[in-house]
Specification:
The chain has 2 domains: 48 residues, no CATH class; 185 residues, Intergrase catalytic core (hpI Integrase, Chain A, Orthogonal Bundle), CATH 1.10.443.10. The chain has 254 residues and is mainly alpha-helical. Strands 1-2-3 form a 3-stranded antiparallel beta sheet. The protein starts with a helix and ends with a helix.
């Protein structure tokens, strides 16, 4: 009979190489095998169950984010000059402007957009925090979306891939484009534009931190404050998003 220590020994050897996440995945895989063995009467227990918390938790690395306005301006100029598929180009321009999570942008459908009223309504089932989210659209975003709709509007998704118009661009498309432009992943990743917006909006001193957090769709940890927060701050968010788009335009011209 295998004991927990028998499983832990080889996992420690994996950890010794600095491969902490691999060790955790290996424990999970071994556990799956043993749970099936228990269910099929081929084993009496799962020895990996006792290893919960025994392995080293890998330290999460913060995503690369640009907080220097001059460097951000250079990235934005490179994005404007990028010659790729029309959907990818539009997504790259909108990501720093609207700062959603990359997956929320990639999987957007035209039915979520009301361009006449300048709002993008993301349903709860597509949000990390499982609550609907509104993104006020600045003039620049509306222009990009109208041009994109003229080119790809027959597709249900806003950012169709080049080979399958009914499916969105791949998860790797935007990171690959940034690498092609010469920006290493240590400098910028798609998700990092959220931290960029958060940092620079807060540093501007023009916007209430609660307004910024609500636009980032971060969940308020204080339940009472979450319930009684002053509405959705929509008036301020509309003004902030237009200011942010104008600010990015200024950085591109600097």
């Amino acid at each position: 009979k295998l004991k927990p220590a028998d499983i832990l020994a080889p996992l420690r050897r994996v950890e010794a190489k600095g491969q902490y996440e691999s060790a955790r995945r290996l424990r999970s895989t071994i556990g799956s095998v043993f749970r099936y063995a228990v269910a099929s009467a081929r084993a009496e227990f799962d020895p990996t169950a006792s290893l919960q918390g025994a392995l080293i938790t890998p330290k999460s690395k913060p995503r690369a984010a640009i907080v220097d306005p001059k460097i951000l301006g250079a990235v934005l100029r490179a994005i404007d000059g990028y010659e790729g598929h029309v959907s990818l180009c539009a997504a790259l321009k909108l990501l720093p402007m609207l700062f959603p999570r990359p997956g929320e942008l990639r999987h957007a459908t035209w039915s979520e957009f009301d361009l006449d009223n300048a709002v993008w309504s993301i349903p709860a089932e597509r949000m990390k925090m499982c609550r609907p989210h509104l993104v006020p659209l600045p003039r620049q975003a509306i222009g990009i979306l109208r041009d994109l709709h003229a080119a790809t509007g027959n597709a249900p998704v806003v950012f169709p891939g080049p080979r399958a118009p009914d499916r969105p661009i791949s998860e790797s498309a935007m990171p690959a484009a940034l690498r092609y432009m010469g920006f290493p992943k240590e400098q910028v990743v798609p998700h990092g534009f959220r931290a960029t917006a958060s940092t620079l909006l807060n540093e501007s001193g023009k916007w209430n931190a609660d307004v910024i957090e609500r636009q980032l769709a971060h969940l308020e940890q204080n339940a009472i404050r979450r319930v009684y927060a002053r509405g959705e701050y929509m008036d301020d968010r509309i003004k902030m998003m237009q200011w942010w788009a104008d600010y990015l335009d200024k950085l591109k011209k600097a």
